[in-house]
Amino acid sequence: MGCAGSTPKGSPEGEATKKVRKPKPWKHPQPITIGQLRQMRDEFWDTAPHYGGQKEIWDALRAAAEADVSLAQAIVESAGVIVSNADLTLCYDERGAKYELPKYVLSEPTNLVQDS
Predict the structure, then answer these.
(1) Rounded to whole angstroms, how far apart are CA atoms 56 and 79?
(2) What CATH number does residue 76 fall under?
(3) Per the database record, which ranges form the DC-UbP/UBTD2 N-terminal domain (predicted)?
(4) Enclosing domain of residue 50
(5) Is 78 domain-assigned?
(6) Could you give the number of structural domains in the chain?
(7) What is d(CA 75, CA 60) in angstroms, rounded to the nearest whole number?
(8) What is the average pLDDT across 43-59?
(9) Residue 79: what are its φ and ψ, rounded to 5°?
């Protein structure tokens, strides 16, 4: 246990302050419309709290996923989220609960098509 200003060994900033970045481009197995993508996202966020962890952290992760990068950084820091993967696909809360986010809730696929 260190003082309030200490950081983990070997990490100048500490794990909790890892810089958030946009996910790398990805492709859905088949072309997908924005409506289908929204439905997938809604289904994920509706069921995510059932996978464990705290609802407040899931809410913060959703807000971060829907925000621009600088605001997402502020959201995860204020919620005490420990960012393991800078693209937010893997995070932990202060109690060690794991939060995995699929890329489709974080960004749009390269093969997104117009709704008909």
Answers:
(1) 8
(2) 1.20.225.20
(3) 17-115
(4) 37-110
(5) yes
(6) 1
(7) 6
(8) 95
(9) -85, -5
Q: Which residue has the higher pLDDT, 11 or 60?
A: 60
Q: What is the mean pLDDT of residues 51-69?
A: 96
Give the tens place of pLDDT for each residue, 71-106.
999 999 999 999 999 999 999 999 999 999 999 999
Cα dihedral 60, 106, 45, 93 sign: negative
Residue owning tokens 């932990």: 92
Calculate mean pLDDT across residues 29-50.
Answer: 95
Secondary structure (DSSP) of 23-81 = PPP---SS-EEHHHHHHHHHHHHHHGGGGSS-HHHHHHHHHHHTS-HHHHHHHHHHHT-
Question: What is residue 11's predicted lDDT score, i.e. its pLDDT?
Answer: 40
**Other C-beta atoms lying within 10 Å of the C-beta of residue 101:** 22
- CB of 37 within 8 A of CB of 110? no
Q: What are the two backbone dihedrals, phi and then psi, of residue 31, each rounded to the nearest 5 degrees? A: -55, 140
* Residue 92 φ then ψ, to 5°: -135, 155
Can you give the pTM of this predicted structure? Answer: 0.82
